[in-house]
Specification:
The chain has 215 residues and is an alpha/beta fold. It has one domain (8-212): TIM Barrel, CATH 3.20.20.70. The chain is built from ten helices and eight strands. Helix 7 (147-157) links the parallel strand 6 and strand 7. The longest helix is centred in the middle third of the chain and has 15 residues, at 124-138. The structure holds cytidine-5'-monophosphate. Residues 11, 13, 37, 62, 113, 116-117, 144, 166-167, 176, 178, 196-199 line the site of cytidine-5'-monophosphate (C5P).
């Protein structure tokens, strides 16, 4: 049976700590990991991360770092102190930046952002694969990509190289601004280690029921 609990990451794209906490309290038994992205982190900072970890859930800190190597390394060190489980860097930052991020001792898992699922261009698959190879060479743990590239990445880079899929929608749901979307079942069958879902859950009348019916 496909297991959603260890795979689902709920994107807490809200503006206040209070809203974030309400969702964590409501979803915590069914969800192990929450994503703190630029919206919540800019509004509430490390408190958002601490609130989630205190309740026993894991944090995926999605700030998509893209900067000079030393700055990214320092950001990874700061995230380590916050005890986040996994974080993102931008693969277009180049090998030196990625190696600097990977060099931090006892760091969170680091996944590299390939091409955003809100973008859709020619030759996406090859570009994603090249970026994923770069991520592996630089010592990262995996990549963020769409479901469409997941099977290929697992085949080329090995089953232990993590794949995180955003752009996930329940069957028949709205795509919003995401272009390359897929269902949770399609993502998990393609080999995704984690799937990220935000608005469909945050905007659901009954988010827990929606999660239960995802697969
Ligand atoms: O609301 P929705 O399910 O579209 O949210 C997707 C989340 O995943 C957002 O927080 C967005 O920042 C993030 N994300 C993405 N595409 C990527 C990387 C991250 O949509 N390639």
């Amino acid at each position: 049976m496909l297991d959603i609990k260890d795979k689902l990451i709920v994107a807490l794209d809200v503006d206040t700590l209070g809203e974030a906490e309400k969702f964590v309290d409501k979803l915590c038994p069914a969800v192990n990991m929450f994503k703190v992205g630029s919206q919540l982190f800019t509004a509430c900072g490390p408190q958002a991360v601490q609130m989630i970890t205190k309740k026993g859930a894991k944090v995926f800190l999605d700030l998509k770092s893209y900067d000079i190597p030393n700055t990214v390394k320092k950001a990874v060190e700061a995230a380590s102190k916050l005890r986040v489980f996994m974080l993102t860097v931008h693969l277009s930052g180049g090998k030196e930046m990625l190696q600097a991020a990977a060099s931090v001792p006892n760091r969170p898992k680091i996944v590299g952002v390939t091409i955003l699922t809100s973008q859709s261009e020619d030759n996406t698959a090859n570009r994603v694969l090249d970026l994923a190879r770069l991520a592996k060479e630089a010592g990262l743990d995996g990549v963020v990509c769409s479901v469409a590239e997941t099977k290929m990445i697992k085949k080329e880079l090995g089953k232990d190289f993590l794949v995180v899929n955003p752009g996930i929608r329940p069957k028949d749901a709205q795509a919003n601004d995401q272009k390359r979307v897929a269902t949770p079942k399609e993502a998990i069958e393609a080999g995704a280690d984690f799937i990220v879902m935000g608005r469909p859950i945050l905007e659901a009348k009954d988010p827990l029921k929606l999660i239960e019916g995802l697969i």
